[in-house]
Design a protein that fits this description.
Elements (H helix, E strand, L loop, with lengths): L4 E6 L4 H15 L3 E8 L15 H18 L3 E7 L9 H15 L3 E5 L6 H13 L11 E5 L20 E4 L4 H10 L13 H14 L5 E9 L2
Parallel strand pairs: 1-2, 1-4, 2-3, 4-5
Antiparallel strand pairs: 5-7, 6-7
Helix pairs in contact: 1-5, 2-5, 3-4, 5-6
Amino acid sequence: MTRNKVLVIAAHPDDEILGCGATMAKHKHDGDEVSVVILAEGLTSRDEYRDRSTRSKDLSELGAAAYKANEILGVDSVTLEEFADNRMDSVDRLEIIKKVEFLLDKYRPDVVYTHHIGDVNIDHRRIHEAVLTACRPIPGNHRVNHLLYFEVPSSTEWMTPGSAPHFAPNWFVDVSDTLELKLKALEAYHTEMREWPHTRSIKAVDHLARWRGATISRDAAEAFVLGRTML
């Protein structure tokens, strides 16, 4: 029997695995239903001008990598939306909020994972704001029991403390048994990963998980900031 419905709302393909891949695998091991929605396309911000047609092959390959990575974790469903990569500040905030509200109505999650606000990536920040707004506990809204914010290596740690709220985790998940699945899933995103000592390298992700684990006297962990919990 499914214990919880889990929804991960991420900006770009690979953010979901970097942020909470091992936790997703743990949810699946525990019998939970896990759905992933990736709102922005990825890649096109690397060009001077956005032109999906010139990136169609690359975007197709990145989408295939997203499906493969999440399949490795056992995720139940993956949805790829098409907001412009690193241009979500050019979209009315209400449009993003309405999209998230639609997702909440569709998936009816008990647990939502998304980006932390203290992040250098503008898409990450806009999605955080939209999810927080859509998850507000007012009468008539679907009840989300746990709202958690993840860190994304190569983005969250580069936000300076004086510029935005610092990522100071207060919720830790022991992923000692599922970390290897996360690292394997990241290998599917080989075009997005970098060589050590880049923080978005397999080795750096492993080191971060070991450090977060040591913080709670476990072999490995993923860390989150608790946005809200209702019991």
